[in-house]
Amino acid sequence: MAAIFPGEHVQDHRARPLLAVTVALFVMLPRVGFGAADDKKRAEREALKASLMQVLQREPLNASRVGVHMMSLDDGSVVFSHNADELLNPASNVKLVTSAAALVTLGPEYRFETEFLLETESDGVKAKTLYVRGKGDPSITTERLYGIVSDLFHTGLREVQDIVVDDSWFDAERTPPGFDQEDSDRAYMAPTGALSLNWNAVGVFLRPGDTVGSKGVVEIEPQSDFFVVESALTTGNARSRRFSVASDAAGAQQKIIVRGQVPHGGAYMSVYKKIDNPPMYFGQTLKQMLNARGVKVKGKVKQGLAPQKAKLVYVAHSDTFDIILKRLNKLSSNFVAETLLKVMGAESRGVPGTFAKGIDVVEDFLSREVGIPRGTYVMKNGSGLNDANRFSATQMDRILRYMYERFPLAPEYLSSLGIAGKDGTLKYRFDGTEAVGRLRAKTGTLENVSALSGYVQAAGGEKFIFSMMVNDYPGRSGPVVRGLDSLGAAVASVGSTMGPGRTVAELASEEKSSTPMAEVTSRVKTYLALGSQRDARNIGFLRTAWRSERDPAVRAVVAESLYQSNPQDYLGVRTLLDSYSAGTDVYGRLRAVARELSVEVPGLGAMVELAASGNAEALARIIELAGASAGDAASESEMAEGLGAVARTAPEELVQAMRTASARDRETATTLLARGLVQAGDAEHPFWKALRKSLGSTDTKLAEFSRSLEGSLSRKVAEEKAPKPLVPVQVVAPAASAPIGPGSVERTAETRPGG
């Protein structure tokens, strides 16, 4: 039957042939258009696939286990897949799973509660006992706690005998599977607690004394009787910044041990460490604040249970969960992730909340809601720390797609992710690409693991989800991170004038670019001067410089200047570690610059400083640098002194780093460490004590390695101490134009590390 349009008179048979032609043309024209659009999309997809494969075929990705899966959210098609079903360690990408399950289970409006209860005397003013019952709030800080104390004061509370902290909403297991693989006091290893404060970490603030040689100042934030400080911190010269801070459990207290030197005239420095007893940390800080606010606490802080007859006088509510979720994913908080597991367990499976109950809730969500069957993946903790989880890129994308399509929760979930080039752990990544502002993703970083999963709207408007995981890569993480960024930037450039091919090619050429040595020396000198100012006001300029400088050696020096401008900035530390390598393109060329400028090798001092504070990645890099310095007298001398400083403040961590180093680097590092220990002239050097402690380790492999290292190191120390034979030396006057060679630069107290 012919189509009838409004106003058409059926009786007019003469109009029907014309109408049929019009309808035919109307139907055919869009098909022609759609065909052209389809052809363009197919061409763009093929170009994208070719570009992505080009990245995967480069080093070090081609020598790694890589899983990649990308889908179009517009049409549901799989855009790219490479080993997408292989189960890999996703590192912190597991937080995407934890946060999705928590958002569905708890809801974006969920608020955590902390209850304050009293057993009071008859007048209602003097209290016998103040009970605090926690329910897993991961967001209480010193500032929030002070506000809570003020509210308690305004209830009329003026005197307390004892404070009893009730942590029973969680079980007694503080850390989940995977945390036991790392013996560390770093803040990212913080334990869980139904009562927690400051993400169960403490700030240790260090500053120099009035004169060189005087004691350094150590301050704890927040202050309370929970902390016992043992300090051997001294004030060194302007370049002496070699210190370590350790945190150890001491029963109901926490011991903070500080060693090393801070520079005279320098600004304060801060280090954050985990605490081991969350409820006592909370309770002792509460006691300190109550006293300061005018509420007298006459007795002690104890752990116990709030009795049924205690009267509820105040409930502290957190922000809504969607706000807390941003801290979890944008800043990749292990503490929040693991706390959420126990909260989900308590809310859905009953008190006390446990890791096992939380994992059961997550697995139920994945099987019932997302359609990922139990047993097809491995999830043992909620944060992704260490080697405890396995997911495939395909599974990650299924979770991302599910959350994107669940509208009531999608805005909160997407807004919790870091934005490329803007904030979170992606703040300084993807610079100069189409991905900036378009890509939202969760990073994942562990030793030999790097991952990135999330969403991106390409320049042409199409929206994609992606998951990229790299395991077992050789060498340092910087090239792997750049490879992942190249993959993300290629997807973001679909539909742009540049396109994926040119984007990938330009990023590759930037990695290989090299500047003439004379220009490198000049630029390095400029950035060294800026870094020496240690002024946070330079950070914006230095960030721009780091983005635009293409020579890898110059970028490494800019990264050092960034670090020096704010040593407390995690992203600045990350930039330095990713930019500085032991290869000839960075360390090799910077050694030449050092000879030209008569300074220590740029960046080496900052790397030693990080290693001396116990940073595992910096320790590994220092040993690689030691191996690369072999045969260069000046560099060997610097490395010997640097290793001696590291051995004093991070001895146990250095033993572990030596254990995992390559045989060649370890041999050179051992020789230089022996030289550094001899130069220190300390028979009771902390490194020997740490080595003896490792000999008795329950880890038989560590004990065996330590025994071997002790023998090798003792032998090399004896060789260093032995008198050197006198040999005749023929003195030859150098030509006036002779270049400065290794060992010819005079090292003064101002130029040598730790001098």
UniProtKB/TrEMBL annotation:
InterPro entries for this protein: Beta-lactam/transpept-like, Peptidase_S13
Signal peptide positions on this chain: none
Enzyme class: hydrolase
Tree of life domain: Bacteria
Region (Disordered): 733-755
EC annotation from Swiss-Prot or TrEMBL: 3.4.16.4
GO molecular function: serine-type D-Ala-D-Ala carboxypeptidase activity
Annotated Low complexity bias: 733-745
The entry's keywords: Carboxypeptidase, Hydrolase, Protease
Gene3D superfamilies assigned: D-Ala-D-Ala carboxypeptidase C, peptidase S13, DD-peptidase/beta-lactamase superfamily
Family named by the database record: Belongs to the peptidase S13 family.
Full protein name: D-alanyl-D-alanine carboxypeptidase/D-alanyl-D-alanine-endopeptidase
The species this protein was found in: Archangium minus
Gene: dacB
